[in-house]
Amino acid sequence: AKHVQNNIQMTEVTMSTSKHDAFWMPFTANRQFKAEPRLMVSAEGMYYQTEDGRNVLDGTAGLWCVNAGHGRKRISEAVAKQIQQLDFAPTFQMGHPLPFELAERLVKHTPDGLNRVFFTNSGSESADTSLKIAIAYHKAKGNHGKTRLIGREKGYHGTNFGGISVGGLGNNRKSFGSLLTGVDHLKHAWKPGSEFTKGLPEDGAEMADELLDMIALHGAETIAAVIVEPIVGSGGVFMPPQGYLKRLRQITEQHDILLIFDEVITGFGRVGEAFASNRMGVTPDIMNTAKGLTNGAIPMGAVFLQDFIYDAFMQGPEEIIELFHGYTYSGHPVAAAAGLATLDIYEEENLFQKALQLESYWQESLHKLREHGVVKDIRNYGLVGAIELHSSEKFGERGYKIFNHCYWKQNALVRCTGDTIAMSPPLILEESHIDELMNALSKSLSNAL
Ligand code: PLP
């Protein structure tokens, strides 16, 4: 009876008392949010509509994903049509036409050689897929010892075990046990003295040479891959020093180490070309994407692989499954339909080029905020922007205050990561939206702290 009573007591304690209690929100201070929920109920173009009836300018493309702007009928109609025609079909030992078509269309935009596509459902799954394929590739080539993975401090590669193991954000790792073994981290590639650089810092390419030290320490014969974000996103929005990624490319190539770029946020036009790899002129062996692939409308990710990697798996007997990996929803028909419609929009509206055209206006507007004394640094590239604030005693407090003030008082959505305000607007924006966003930020910087 006591047991039952305990159960009843337990139930009473944990039962929802408000309509917001049941949903355990990801990466959110749940109790703080639920005390004053920021709820958006619809969206169109550059704006969200909030539950309390305001229009809020989207300065973040949702979460770096709604690159073509909100409410795109072309996508919703394609999704509706597809779900009626073929809601689901497996891609394990079966197939349907759409992911084949989407893959062919996508590789027209990727840098040379990245012609093979493995579909996932998120950036986190793309990260773990890329790491597994990297290790399996070396094994397929007979290099069984090449299993070590190298990530980087401040790196973010989603939240699955592989991604947090190579990731370099302490908060995302430290509650979750011992993680993957055989992982090392390069130093974060940003140098003090680079503050207020417009575009990529000139100084710091040599920081890539730390990889040579790791090779000396562990032996190249033990290292499978190096994974980095071309632009660090969640870790605070840091641009790579000029030449840094090229140097990583040279070293990895010399030592038969695969180079993985996580382009989950930099992909699909964010930096003014299809991918940061295109614009920065460095081609990785594996490139991870998600988010902008479907304009955020339906979950989907894609890992792009060099032909030579795919070919290495295609050597054995034809009846043998070459890679024991995949997801029920890899290449899901509805997600693929969303992806195709999204690509139509990007291509027809030249949105990647549009981002490039707007870059200098974006840059100059952003850097005007330097006049606020609390601003410690401003960083930008493509349509990415970051304003780092001098921290108060409590790290992250000022960032949160600006974000919250922008949302409630200035009708603008920005993101905060620690005391850095991150921005990544939809690529459809006009100069007037940039003015509106900067004006909102300026007022928050004056009034919120
Ligand atoms: N990789 C990078 C660089 C990201 O910024 C993110 C998400 O922000 C991810 C991976 C994880 O993507 P998802 O949240 O879709 O799993």
Automatic annotation (TrEMBL):
Cofactor: pyridoxal 5'-phosphate
Record InterPro entries: Aminotrans_3, Aminotrans_3_PPA_site, PyrdxlP-dep_Trfase, PyrdxlP-dep_Trfase_major, PyrdxlP-dep_Trfase_small
UniProt KW keywords: Aminotransferase, Pyridoxal phosphate, Pyruvate, Transferase
SUPFAM superfamilies: PLP-dependent transferases
EC number assigned by the record: 2.6.1.18
Keyword GTP-binding assigned: no
MF-aspect GO terms: adenosylmethionine-8-amino-7-oxononanoate transaminase activity; beta-alanine:pyruvate transaminase activity; pyridoxal phosphate binding
Example GO biological process: biotin biosynthetic process
Signal peptide: none
CDD domains: OAT_like
Family: Belongs to the class-III pyridoxal-phosphate-dependent aminotransferase family.
Official protein name in the record: Beta alanine-pyruvate transaminase
Classification lineage: Bacteria, Pseudomonadati, Pseudomonadota, Gammaproteobacteria, Oceanospirillales
